[in-house]
Amino acid sequence: MCSEAAQFIESYIYEVLEKREIFSLVLSGGLLIQSLYKALFYIDNIPWDKIHFFITDERCLPQDDDNSNFKNTVKSLLRRSNIPLKNIHWINTDIIPLKKASFEYEKTIKQFLSKHNSFFDLLLLSLGPDGNIASLFPGFPALLEKKKYVVITEKAILDPRVQRITMTIPILNRARKVIYFVSDENCKTILNEIIFRKADDKFSYPAEQILPLDGELIWFILRT
Q: Cα–Cα distances in Å, from 112 out to 22, 23, 87, 88, 124?
């Protein structure tokens, strides 16, 4: 599945770069999706210097912590020598107060999209065991945000139980293509609920709120 998804992404990158000079890619945390990043890492033909990277969310931990999305993504993908540092747009959790860190990341996103285009080219997402995406958990106020692109969450209900800085539904839905990369090993019941959801069902998970405004939603599912 990693190989197929990586080839799909490679082809899409070429497709976009035929029309524009840069490609914007939003990454997510999670163990399974790190395998996809490792598969992408070994594709030398991708024009890495033309890709700008963002992250959906970050745990409010030191960047060298083993639970840091930044650290794990650097190990899996962003350590490539031909990715310019200026192309990596990350959440700086060292900024205090955290509200300022959130504000600075939102500012970075807005400036980038205003300069280049109004949408991200590709958003990669994983599915949490409670149906969460990024750091948007069921019942959390951040899930209801309609205006801000980036917010600080309460302490997470999943480990590590710390505050997070996360993109919100409004900006996550501004992607031309969204890929869910998931395994049903830890979320089989929730995944089946999402796939077979009835139109009149009043309950939904955060993952179901991802409905690209001007794009396509694709699922890569590993059935165990």
A: 11, 11, 11, 12, 18
Helix (H) or strand (E) holding 69: helix 69-73
CB 91 within 8 A of CB 105: yes
CATH assignment at residue 134 = 3.40.50.1360
Element (H, E) at 27: strand 23-27
The distance from CA 79 to its chain's CA centroid, rounded to whole angstroms, is 18
With 0.85 as the threshold, say if the pTM is over it. yes
Where the chain has pLDDT below 70, the residues are none
Name the residue range of residue 202's domain.
Answer: 2-11+31-222
Contact present, 131 and 195 (Cβ < 8 Å): no
| 83: amino acid identity, one letter | I
Is residue 18 one of the residues assigned to a domain? no
